[in-house]
Automatic annotation (TrEMBL), chains A, B:
Function summary: Involved in methylamine metabolism. Essential for the maturation of the beta subunit of MADH, presumably via a step in the biosynthesis of tryptophan tryptophylquinone (TTQ), the cofactor of MADH.
Cofactor(s) of this protein: heme
Annotated signal peptide: 1-23
Name of the featured protein: Methylamine utilization protein MauG
Length: 345, 345
């Protein structure tokens, strides 16, 4: 075991042993998501962002919008191990849910984007996702649809408002409204003790007691937020000895954050995913290899805490995780402006 | 020119010459669409149908829902010449709009389905569209998602409600709500004389005077409805001599209804498409070869009425056709129930 591993194990064990302390730190999700100073969330941006998010004309052959892989009302995901992009190409990683992405300090599984704004640009220009040559090419499409211009002006003032940055800002502003602060768990934490069943409350205690909260902490259950000397990334899997899941689910085939930094210390380091709405987002893990939530719980207990859970405990924890779901705030389907001429081949 | 052609030309000319009579027959769209006796439209069916219509899990690899090619708030189409199905396979014909499909007496370009219920089953089991082995396989997926069962029960009573026929009925019921009875044209016909501009009113007169109404008649502008001795199909293109568009846009490569009946008289016979929301549905014609509405008007005038229109007339008619658009009734985005286990590869 490397020094790095030893440190992480010590951290995990330390936290596990102080599980009771974590149980006191249950946080409800805020009613609004934080926004950067240069992109305050406004209704006009959200309205435009919702349209753009659902517009497949932003993809090379017009078959994919952001919603294709992050279906808003389908849990923010596509329920596939890895997504399928233009030309039937498969991506390498499981699509993370868009719900509560606003509470992540960094975006993508490997944290390669620092903000939702930067994230929004990624898939558009990724050749195996939406497949545009660059984001400007998508903006050129939007510019050729006159019905979009009034929405950009309303959101960003007058002048040359149809720009790459404004497109990304609008999509990010919309995504900041995709939060689920009224789950049974939130209602429970806020005082409605009937919001969770007895089994769910047992699962909640066990979730903390066995140490899941070491990484899945905070209101979004997505781990420590950035602070001096504190990384938002965690190693997965942490325990390799006697861990049958690594080979079974190919957990180490992907190098994780190492692919971004080429720093050896970042091998198999991953952003901690939110557990909110996890019941909606099968299959699980960065490669989508695990089909059920109960198996995902077993894999995590073994791989991160070196624990083998009995079926009852797994059932209790899954019941608790179910309480982290929705409801998804109702929203109207966006009406997309027509193009005056066919722009897709 | 064959006897069949001569008869059709005589019909077209006779109608063109009596254009004034057609001008008196402008009909507004009814506020509700007709429904078959065995599938009355109910809120519960519409709610379920909207969910199923938007659920990509009904396709083989989970990438396509009905909405992928018939985007409801994108004009009911995909704005592509021909649609792209599972595995990046191209269909042979342009996706017709789902808006006001309820007013068609027959479904698909070649009329091979007699009802929306039958139509709904087609693309699910079409190997180059949604690609399921059969519709039952899609129903099996739905059955494996427990959250759907209460919606089927609410719509269809208790017992074994999750069936192929009920799935089709629910989707059809939803589609019967996708109608646009409040376009500027409808408001004009109902007495609001300010609803159309002077140019649109000129275009409306010319549309009738030159004979477009011969086929594009009735409230949905989709031609004569079925009656004894009356066909809902029309030949396209009708005039071949000196028609440059046939080669340019490959108008006769597809045999149309002949492919269904193998009857020579059905060669190049097509269901008359609705013109409602036509400004949203570029590109045009069964093969999507024509990119703009103004060019589509020129092609139709030459191919069906042997007329070459000047630019002013084309502009007026396009302005009138713009008045046949929307608004699309607002609707909430449907929340899709989660699957308890990953069901997609």
């Amino acid at each position: 075991m490397s020094r790095q591993d030893t440190r992480l194990v010590a951290l995990a064990l330390g936290i596990a042993l102080s599980g009771a302390a974590f149980a006191a730190d249950w946080q409800a999700l805020p009613d609004t998501a934080p926004a950067p100073a240069d992109n305050p969330t406004t209704p006009a941006k959200v309205e435009l962002g919702q349209m753009l998010y659902h517009d497949a004309r932003l993809s090379q052959n017009g078959t994919l919008s952001c919603a294709s892989c992050h279906s808003v009302m389908g849990g923010g995901v596509d329920n596939r191990p890895t997504s399928i992009g233009v030309g039937n190409q498969h991506g390498g990683r499981n699509a993370p849910t868009v719900w509560n992405a606003a509470f992540h300090a960094t975006q993508f599984w490997d944290g390669r984007a620092p903000s939702l704004e930067e994230q929004a640009k990624g898939p558009i220009a990724n050749p195996i996702e939406m497949g545009m040559p660059d984001v400007q090419a998508a903006v050129d499409r939007v510019r050729a649809i006159p019905g979009y211009k009034p929405y950009f002006d309303k959101a960003f003032g007058t002048g040359d408002t149809v720009t790459v940055d404004n497109l990304a800002k609008a999509i990010a502003a919309y995504e900041r409204t995709l939060i689920t602060p009224n789950s049974p768990y939130d209602r429970f934490v806020k005082g409605d003790k009937a919001a969770l069943s007895a089994q769910q409350q047992r699962g909640m205690e066990q979730f903390a007691a066995i140490g899941c909260t070491a990484c899945h902490s905070g209101a979004a259950f997505n781990g420590p937020q950035p602070a001096p000397g504190k990384s938002v990334f965690q190693k997965f899997p942490l325990f390799a000895d006697g861990n049958p899941y690594i080979a079974k689910y190919k957990l180490t085939d992907d190098q994780g954050r190492y692919d971004v930094t080429k720093n050896d210390a970042d091998r198999h380091m991953w952003r901690v995913p939110t557990l909110r709405n996890i019941a909606w987002t099968a299959p699980y893990f960065h490669n989508g290899e695990v089909k059920t939530l109960s198996e995902a719980v077993r894999v995590m207990a073994k791989s991160q805490l070196n624990r083998e859970l009995d079926d009852a405990t797994v059932g209790d924890i899954v019941a608790f995780l179910d309480a982290l779901s929705g409801p998804f705030p109702k929203q109207e389907m966006p009406q997309l402006p027509p193009a005056p001429t066919a722009m897709l081949e």
